[in-house]
Amino acid sequence: MKFSMSPAPFLRRKRTTLAIMLELTIALALVWLASIIYYFTIGTNHGLQAILIGVVSTVTMMLVEFLFYLPKCIKDGKEAVSKNSELNCFKETMKAMGYKLSHSFGWVSGLILALLLPVGTPLYVVVVSAIIAILVGKLLFGGFGYNIFNPAIVGRIFAQLCFGTSLAYGVEESVSDFTIFTGATVTSQLSNNNWMTTGLDIDLWKLLLGNYQGTLGETFTLLILVIGVVLAIRKVIDWKVPVFYVGTLYLASLLAGFCGGYGLGSFEYALIQISIGGIMFGAVFCLTDPVTNPTSPSGKVIFAVGAALFTFVIRYFASAPEGVAYSILLMNMLTPLIDRCIKGFTTKKLLPKWGVIGGIMLASMVLGVSSGFVNHGAYDAEYRRQNEFSSVVEKVEDNVYHVEVEQGEKGRVWSKIEMKVTLDMNNRTVTKIEVLSYGGNGGFGDALLTGGEIEFSDDFAYFGDKNKALAFYDKYIKLDSPLSFDEYLTIYGKENSIGNWSSEAKGVIRVGATYTTMGFIYGVCEVINYAGGAQ
Amino acid sequence: MDTQKKSRIFLNPLLKENPILVLILGLCPVLGVSETIDKAIGMGMAVILVLFCTNLVISLIRKLVPNEVRIPIYIVIIASFVTMVQMLMNAFTPELAESLGAFIPLITVNCIILGRAEAFASKNSVGDSILDALGNGFGFLIAVFLVAFFREFLATGGWKLSNPFTNSTIFEIRPLADFAIPLFGQNTGAFLTLGIIIGIVTAIRISSEQRKTLKAKKEVQ
To answer: Does B192 touch chain A (CB under 8 A)?
Structure first.
């Protein structure tokens, strides 16, 4: 008896690989379409860029495949002609090429790669990453079915390593008109905040609807979720991989939330953690790639749980804010090992199988608990650093006070504000605020210093409420009309730490440069207290 | 017949039996110094010089060396010449010597040099040994230059060639400096470039061999 070996994926159903891949393509195209529409609502050039990245990435990959297979297809064409001289050589070559290309699925990798890149990516970066992805990630290993790594992830990581700065620059450039917010993604914001959501304005619905900054395809979590469910029902992807991957991450984040002191809010905290960044997109479109997955069902579970563990470690304990891509590559590398270990395990040997899965999950949970404690501690220290203010008030002349506000722990000043405040003690109002110096850099602070208008671009709608910010500025600092002491004191809450400010007050001042505005309010309140205006 | 054999000793290691691209010997310096063509040429010349001297001396003393202690003797000879080359480079091309750093002393343990001493110079006449040294040295130079050529272009968008003795720039063109891929200046890029070049060379070699066997078959028929 002779066994013949055909490349992965091994299918037991009647549908061909081509049909399944076409369904996957439609799903990817839907995500792409959604992101194009979203970026068109931000700006026409962003929308066009979103279209171009997808087209360039896909076309480059197909072109590289075409060139790679050209010699072989010409040979096939010549052979066919030598067997049957009536055939046209060119036609036969194209026929062979058509077969090769339609069974290599370069466009799927192309679309995934495009959706993994941010909208500000320069096009030559897309081209180079696509070439490396398809050539090094797939064709050199022998084409579709023989690749060890997910080609799109190879391209994405290549782009990250090579053009990390220009990628980040690209992102910032695309939103460079921002006066207040920088172009940080939610993930990097969270990473800087020690993975604590307190103090950041993160709205779960905004995350689910993709209304935040990230790569093209990863943001619209809800759509990806729906598509994932449909694909799983249609058996295009294996439900076990995304479910176990996201499930493990959710549980670990839940524990991290509990240990970070969120109480019942941990459920929301964990939901936020799995909605940001590439977790959902990676789970549905990248991890489930049938070629780079283990073949057995329990192998797939080990694969998914292991990827979750790596993602968790990289996210919470390493310096890289995104761990999804690296974890997928790491697990792809371990796929042959998993396959080999699982091979021959029958139902009698369930214990070792579930032992491995349980062990990895347990490790994730332990990491979740420890990251909760560690990050909470680190966050507390950072929080104190940012939220402790001290001031020196001097009386310059009647009703005019000079105040210096220092923000930060003693000895480690973060920023410094100097201003002159004029009070009207009879009406209990602040009549004039003159900012003398401001320790921040650019943007909000500059406008305050020069007394000029803060220029908000339309892109501000991307992150914050422009009108709210302008209204805040006009009302509290520019002082369109004298403002009563009580207005300031309500926000201030008579406490020397912003952490104790009421949530309502925080809502008023959360317009962008949160800590800067807090410093201003604090300084004015100190003046009022000094002058005896507080009762 | 004799000249044909002699030319084969020199020409074979250049491409057909290239120590780097075909025999995959002594890859460490190729990966390490192929960042720029300047460094590649400097390293290639140093290797040619050391290989020439060691092959010459080892071939001269081949009948005096007892078989049991031949390796230590070869190493001592190689190390002496490497030290000389290093001192010469420090004296006349200080910048180049500094940029090559540890890779000059490491020539001592380069597989190509010990390999040629052991496999060729210890068994062949002085003239053949010199030809073999030149062939392998230039083979190394060709390979390391090839890798550096692509790496420098990809990593910086162009090439720069300077005179190592005066450290003045002979020419510098960087037409694609804006589209540089810095990763190719690092180790990852070295492995990628060398791997792809070896792959292409192997593919060409195999196809040419197949063609030759086909031709031979036809001639037989």
So the answer is: yes
